Automatic annotation (TrEMBL):
Name used for this protein in its record: Glycoside hydrolase family 92 protein
Gene3D superfamilies for the chain: 2.70.98.10, alpha-1,2-mannosidase, alpha-1,2-mannosidases domains, GH92 mannosidase domain
Pfam families the record matches: Glyco_hydro_92, Glyco_hydro_92N
Domain Glycosyl hydrolase family 92 N-terminal: residue ranges: 28-281
Higher taxonomy: Bacteria, Pseudomonadati, Pseudomonadota, Alphaproteobacteria, Sphingomonadales
Record's keyword terms, sorted: Hydrolase, Signal
Any GO MF annotation of the entry: peptide-N4-(N-acetyl-beta-glucosaminyl)asparagine amidase activity
Signal peptide: 1-24
Stored InterPro entries: 6-hairpin_glycosidase_sf, GH-type_carb-bd, GH92_a_mannosidase_put, GH92_N, Glyco_hydro_92, PNGase
Superkingdom in the source lineage: Bacteria
Domain Glycosyl hydrolase family residues, every copy: 288-748
An annotated GO BP: glycoprotein catabolic process
One GO CC term, this protein: cytosol
């Protein structure tokens, strides 16, 4: 039997070589967001790792009822069903939860999870939070019912379990291929299990979930020899009654396939912990085996490597702030470094959106692109702290996906190479444009621009045909038309910006014109963005507070979406009636009386401050818009209101879904004192800092420091100095950050109503600069 043996000496050397105190590592709390609306998971993962090995507390729910369990783990739940190898961090939808493994101790081996309300009815177990440990790259818990201490760690393409069984009791593992997140009848299309002569277990499954016909393979090895095993199909079998004893009948076979498989692995009584090493591949079982062998060592070595990787990643930002804020910020930074995740094998092969196998040449294929969420702040943050991955991996993966797309367009919401068509816009476009405009190369710009234009001119997608003919998306032909019109217009502007920088004046002119299409859906009479019909009229009746899925807006209403013209806020403000009218309307939004308004039917509407909804992305730039109206002190007030009410270092500390790092990236930028309202403008709008000192350790070797005398009695910016010189404008240029230096905020008790109020000192607007 070929077993892997933990390399304790090598692991000990790695641990001893690690620094005793690591900047940021000990401040991360992966439990933040695992309760409330955060939808994060506490399990083990490496930076951007393929494997997210984490506990699932309940996978028995179906479709809409599963919203609270989108990440598998819910802090309020009393039991753990098992440990699966794939999870999203903070998504508003879900899938994954692949290849759930659970230890069982004793003679009887249940192969059904059982009822959480009936202890002992299945393999699930009670647990206490007092026994849990969650750190970057490591998770541990004691399972009360079997008395097993369970530990998890993860590498780039592997996850390693370590189970300490009670002395004198037989050790077993249950591998449930039926379990999945957002489960429902018929989701598992096919699955397989195979025992190889050397003791390796491989298998696969194909699921029809959020992504259709998704294929995933695994390879698994144990640190102790198998005494017995069973591959059980429960699809039509009612005789087993939920339990299988070791050595049961014809189930001791070398391989089995079907739609409802469970594997049982028996090890007898063990004198030392059992380690289980698992690798994944979206390509085939051979790829999973190769991935398994690409990362050497046992549990301690993999854990040490994961810690070292996290220490390096988190060292991109040094933060000095009170302990609660440090915990919030380093956890936020941690969450921003989980996706886009590795989706290609060690040999470069990956499965693309055409469900065919391709090979990456010179880059690692990555997926899990939640682009409607992450183009706003998550990807701009990565251009500062992970630019080498932005060019060599993220952008090239987007372009490679476009090449393999049956529709010839860039990803919309993709994971494990498969398209879900979730959310709106073609927001891979600003991600690519930002990388190019910031000088992050490593990809073919002409090929990238071709992909961007193709995505923006694919008529069958989301009402683009009408958008190109009418200048807006028609609501009588396409739902959520108002939102789509303004989001397309912004994406078009980023195409124009990149084309202009490349000298492609024809493309730049065409898409600059399209960037003004937001005007076609803005109703100056009501002061709101509205959906228009194909005959040119606005749809009636109109209620700016109404939120319904499939209506005029995407996960929002007129109050949130009427502000989405990030590339030309000045022109929008002119239409709204000027600075005073805009400040008044912004105040009305934040101070809106919500009495009698119920949004409980809309899952993603959380974190309300009046009609400002911080728990969802359309509002994320709005607090910074006072700057564009010459009232930056009002931005400073609103930011404090948001940070104080929407973030805290507790399991329910995120007011809304983290959405693959976007909520966290908002906090990171805001705490530093600036935010990318308009990705593609190469500017960051200055707000106010929430740290005493922070330093960006830039990949070019430069250091950019933010310093501030923050305090509860000093909520306003009195003066800003860049490298010792007064900064009179309310924005910072990307090049100024990358050059290194110091941004110093002098905070004070009263607002400074003269700083950065002049038109020339306001952030970028297309019609003004």
């Amino acid at each position: 039997m070929a077993m892997f043996r933990p390399r304790f000496a090598a692991a000990l050397a790695l641990i001893l070589a690690a620094p005793l105190v690591a900047q940021g590592y000990d401040d991360v709390d992966p439990f933040i967001g695992t309760g409330g609306e955060g939808h994060t998971f506490p399990g083990a993962v490496s930076p951007f790792g393929m494997v997210q090995l984490s506990p699932d507390t309940d996978t028995s729910c179906v479709i809409r009822e599963c919203y609270d369990h989108a990440a598998g783990y819910r802090y309020e739940d009393p039991t753990i069903q098992g440990f699966s190898h794939t999870h999203f961090s903070g998504s508003g939808h879900s899938d994954l939860g692949d290849f759930l493994l659970m230890p069982v101790a004793g003679d009887a081996v249940p192969i059904e999870p059982g009822d959480a309300k009936k202890p002992g009815s299945g393999y699930r177990s009670r647990f206490s939070h007092d026994t849990e440990i969650a750190q970057p790259g490591y998770y541990a818990v004691t399972l009360s019912d079997p008395g097993v201490r369970a530990e998890m760690t993860a590498g780039t393409r592997i996850g390693v379990h370590r189970y300490s069984f009670p002395k004198g009791k037989a050790a077993h593992l249950v591998l449930d291929l039926r379990s999945s997140l957002y489960n429902y009848p018929g989701k598992i299309l096919w699955s397989s299990l195979r025992l190889h002569p050397d003791g390796t277990i491989t298998g696969s499954r194909e699921t029809r979930g959020w992504a259709p016909a998704r294929k995933l393979f695994f390879a698994m090895r144990f640190s102790a020899p198998l005494k017995d095993h069973a591959f059980i199909s429960t699809e039509k079998d009612v005789a087993y009654k939920g339990f299988r004893a070791p050595g049961h009948g014809t189930e001791n076979v070398a391989e089995r396939s079907g739609r409802a498989l469970v594997g049982r692995f028996d090890f007898g009584k063990l004198d030392e912990p059992l380690e289980v090493k698992v690798a994944l591949s979206s390509v085939d079982e051979a790829g999973a085996i190769a991935n398994l062998e690409s990362e050497a060592g046992g549990f301690d070595a993999v854990r040490a490597n994961a810690r070292a990787a996290w220490e390096k990643a988190l060292s991109a930002v040094e933060i000095e702030a009170p302990a609660p804020m440090r915990k919030n910020l380093y956890t936020a930074l941690y969450h921003t470094l989980l996706a886009p995740s590795v989706a290609g094998d060690a040999d470069g092969r990956y499965r693309g959106p055409d469900n065919a196998v391709h090979r990456a040449d010179g880059f690692t294929f990555r997926s899990t692109f939640s682009l409607w969420d992450t183009f706003r702040a998550e990807h701009p943050l990565l251009t500062l702290i992970q630019p080498e991955k932005t060019n060599s991996d993220f952008v090239r993966s987007l372009i490679a996906s476009r090449k393999a797309s049956p529709h010839g367009i860039l990803p919309v919401w993709q994971f494990q190479g498969q398209e879900t068509w979730t959310m709106i816009g073609y927001h891979a476009v600003p991600v690519i444009a930002e990388a190019y405009l910031k000088g992050i190369g490593g990809f073919d710009a002409n090929e990238a621009l071709e992909a961007m234009v193709a995505s923006a001119t694919y008529a069958p997608y989301g009402g683009l045909g009408d958008y190109m003919k009418l200048g807006y998306v028609a609501i009588d032909r396409e739902p959520e038309a108002a939102s789509k019109t303004v989001e397309y217009a912004y994406d078009d502007w980023t195409i124009a910006r990149m084309a202009e920088a490349m000298g492609r004046k024809d493309i730049a002119a065409a898409f600059s014109k399209r960037a003004g299409n937001w005007r076609n859906s803005f109703d100056a009479k009501t002061g709101f963005l509205r959906a228009r019909k194909s005959d040119g009229g606005f749809r009636v009746p109109f209620d700016p507070t109404a939120i319904n899925y499939g209506s005029d807006y995407t996960e929002g209403n007129a109050w949130q979406y009427s502000w989405f013209v990030p590339h030309d806020q000045a022109a929008l403000f002119d239409v709204m009636g000027g600075d005073a009218a805009v400040v008044k309307k912004l105040d009305e939004m934040f101070e809106f009386d919500m009495s009698g308004i119920d949004y409980s039917h809309a899952e993603d509407i959380a974190g309300l401050i009046g009609q400002y909804i911080h728990g969802n992305e359309p509002s994320h730039h709005v607090a910074y818009l006072y700057n564009y109206a010459g009232a930056p002190w009002r931005t400073q007030e609103r930011l404090k209101q948001i940070v104080d009410s929407q973030y805290k270092p507790t399991p329910d500390g995120l007011s809304g879904n983290d959405d693959l790092g976007q909520m966290s990236a908002w906090l990171m930028f805001t705490a530093l004192g600036f935010y990318p309202v308009t990705p593609g403008s190469l500017e960051y709008v200055i707000g106010r800092p929430f740290v005493e000192r922070a330093t960006l350790n830039l990949p070019n070797g430069k250091r950019f420091t933010i310093a501030a005398n923050v305090g509860e009695d000093r909520p306003y910016v009195g003066r800003v100095l860049l490298n010792g010189r007064p900064l009179t404008r309310s924005y910072l240029r990307h090049e100024e950050i990358m050059a290194g230096g110091e941004l110093r905020f002098e905070m004070q008790a009263q607002p400074n109503r003269t700083w950065a109020v002049a038109q020339a000192d306001r952030p970028y607007s297309m019609s003004r600069r």
